[in-house]
Specification:
Layout (H helix, E strand, L loop, with lengths): L1 E2 L2 E4 L3 H12 L4 E4 L4 H6 L5 E2 L1 H9 L3 H7 L1 E3 L1 E6 L2 E6 H5 L3 E3 L2 H14 L3 E3 L3 E6 L7 E6 L2 E6 L2 E4 L6 H5 L6 E16 L9 E3 L6 E7 L2 E8 L10 H10 L3 H6 L5 E15 L2 E2 L2 E3 L5 E2 L7 H22 L3 H28 L6 H16 L1 H12 L6
Parallel strand pairs: 1-12, 2-3, 2-13, 3-9, 6-15, 13-20
Antiparallel strand pairs: 4-8, 5-8, 6-7, 10-11, 11-12, 14-17, 14-18, 15-16, 16-17, 18-21, 19-20
The chain binds flavin-adenine dinucleotide (FAD).
The site of flavin-adenine dinucleotide has 33 residues, from α1 and α10.
Length: 391
């Protein structure tokens, strides 16, 4: 039987980052991932990093490529009623955000863990967690056709929304809070320069649109779509036409089109479970909470959980202190609910929920108010760049 201090389930950003930070603090850990390395490395997802996330990645000694390749954004724009209003994040909060794709973060993390000789098990099948309500949790899995059993002190459930860890906690021990939205985002990635050097969030009577990017030569665009939409029905030409219709004329004219290199539909969801700890099992990142991507919070929230958990584990192994571990759930949930609230609010003012013109007029009135109120813009900006961390 193998042994480690912390068994980490899932090699997404939260699992890899936790693994790296624990390693740097001398804590032995193993990461078990269901998918292949190539699959994990190739997933196109988030792109906006809060300053707090950047600082945590630097602490994890991953910063070099990120600092040279990221795009620092001091503002974002809100487009509505044929005009666009810039939210000056830097002037309103003193902070900026960084555009650096989740794919790049994952690559940096994988490279760092591999270089350090980390125990990263890709294609680990039938992962099962057990005895986490005792002092000797166990993880069983199959790898290369053999069954393995691992004992550990703690299990970190970094295995995303569909993972095994949350599902292994006894029914009744967790409370679930959920809201689904009656639409999704159709996203396209294309090797064309972005329409603007900053992100543009657009409210339009036909639905939401977002102009985003991964670099100055690679653009990421989204349009709100029905949940029953089929990707095959969206040729590149149809996508570009729909995007431009939903943008103010000046921005639409700046959109440079090209062949898509990726196209996908993602449903939107708000989801939280409480608590995030059951015995020696801790839920981290998307395993614990999901937010709609409008506020660019999913990846940042995963990093924020890791920040709290790794510090608590370091303290435990260094001084036997358990109070930080005991506070993990409360601290992580406090931040998660702030992000859930902000993402829900931002989603609700930018998307089309029905054909009712009253609702659209209300959204336009709110955006109009926002654009003329420093107080309201500051509130948006504070949440967008990331609220301060609890100490
Ligand atoms: C399509 C899509 C688009 C998104 N776009 C954005 C965006 O624009 N902005 C934003 O901020 N956020 C976005 N997100 C959210 C963001 O990507 C996530 O918040 C982030 O990936 C969370 O990281 P994580 O490590 O907690 O979970 P994940 O990235 O989901 O990683 C979990 C890992 O666990 C593995 N796993 C699952 N089950 C098992 C098992 N039984 N055994 C072993 N391993 C297992 C999975 O294969 C996966 O590698 C998006 C998410 C999706 C799905």
């Amino acid at each position: 039987m193998d042994r480690t201090q912390v068994a980490i389930i899932g090699a997404g950003p939260s699992g890899l980052l936790l693994s790296q930070l624990l390693y740097l603090n001398g804590i032995d850990n193993i990461v078990l991932e269901r998918q292949s390395r190539e699959h994990v490395a190739g997933r196109i997802r988030a792109g906006v990093l809060e300053q707090g996330t950047v600082e945590l990645l630097l602490k994890a000694k991953l910063g070099e490529r990120m600092l040279s390749e990221r795009l620092v954004h001091d503002g974002v724009s809100l487009a509505f009623a044929g005009r666009s209003v810039r939210v000056d994040l830097k002037a309103l909060t003193g902070s900026s955000v960084s555009v650096y794709g989740q794919t790049e973060v994952t690559k940096d993390l994988m490279d760092a863990r591999t270089a350090a000789g980390a125990k990263l098990m890709f294609e680990a099948a039938e992962v099962a967690v057990a005895d986490f309500d005792s002092a000797h949790p166990k993880v069983r899995y199959r790898h290369n056709g053999r069954t393995h059993e691992l004992t550990c002190d703690f299990i970190a459930g970094c295995d995303g929304y569909h993972g095994v860890c949350r599902q292994s906690i006894p029914q009744g021990a967790l409370q679930t809070f959920e809201r689904t939205y009656p639409f999704g985002w159709l996203g396209i990635l294309a090797d064309v320069p972005p329409a603007s050097h900053e992100l543009i969030y657009s409210n339009h009577a036909r639905g939401f649109a977002l102009c985003s990017m991964r670099s100055m030569t690679r653009s990421r665009y989204y349009v709100q779509c029905g949940l029953d939409e089929k990707l095959e029905a969206w040729s590149d030409a149809r996508f570009w036409d729909e995007l431009r219709v939903r943008l103010p004329d000046e921005i639409a004219a700046a959109v440079i089109t090209g062949p898509s290199i990726e196209k996908s539909i993602a449903p939107l969801r708000s989801f939280v479970v409480e608590p995030l700890r059951f015995g020696q099992l801790f839920l981290v990142g998307d395993a614990a909470h999901i937010v709609p991507p409008t506020g660019a919070k999913g990846l940042n929230l995963a990093a924020a959980d890791v920040r709290v958990l790794y510090q608590a584990l370091v303290e435990y192994y260094r001084t036997s202190r358990t109070d930080l571990l005991e506070r993990y759930s409360q601290m992580a949930l406090r931040r998660a609910w702030q992000a859930v609230r902000f993402s829900w609010w931002f989603t609700s003012i930018m998307h089309k929920f029905s054909d009712d013109p009253f609702n659209h007029r209300l959204q336009l009135a709110e955006l109009d108010y926002l654009s003329g109120s420093t107080a309201a813009l500051t509130s948006l900006a504070e949440n967008y760049v990331g609220l301060p961390f609890e100490v």
